[in-house]
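Morning!

This is the sequence you dropped in the shared folder:
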Amino acid sequence: MKNIVVYIHGKHGSAQEASHYGSLFADCDVVGFDYKAKTPWEAKEEFPPYFDAVFKKYDSAMLVANSIGAFFAMHALTDAPIKKAFFISPVVNMENLIANMMAQANVSEKELREKGEPDTSYGEKLSWKYLCYVRQNPIYWTAPTHILYGKNDDLTPFETVCEFANKIGATPTVMKNGEHRFHTKEQMRFLDNWIRHFAPESTKSREENYGIK
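The structure's back. Tokens below.
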């Protein structure tokens, strides 16, 4: 049986990050998806052809997706036969995130609608089209999913993640010293043990103390 794990990076990430996960899924091919999409509608165009080819070649496919990569995956792969998904700091409510960005930039909804894409002092682009799109296209995700969340995540409130996890039946795990970006040795060790704990039996490490609570 041929199994694959596809890694979907977050903003400013890269497909090469997939190499970190190879040892965690010993019985699977692990590849990184080098996508170009910057919006969910672009992801809907780009993701399906890539994954259609994956599904034809492999018996089962799992996802490991980071931040905005998870958001794009949930929009673009709604009906895809994903065996299991591991979402790391996923963006689960883009409308709220945009609203927070608007508040930070002191931009009203009226101003956003009139200007379309106003600049902000902190360098992020706001987009009226993006806000309208996420309002009109809510996430509908049914694949078995595990979510890893850092308690110090500065993009998504804990309550928002919990609400989303309950909505889709996902299993949330919270790291007390975690951030939106998992990158320190301690954080990556926790992330690795989280995956080992929830991965299928054939890919689990023999390690018994996973450190997941």
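Headline: The radius of gyration is 17 Å.

More detail when I'm at my desk.
O.
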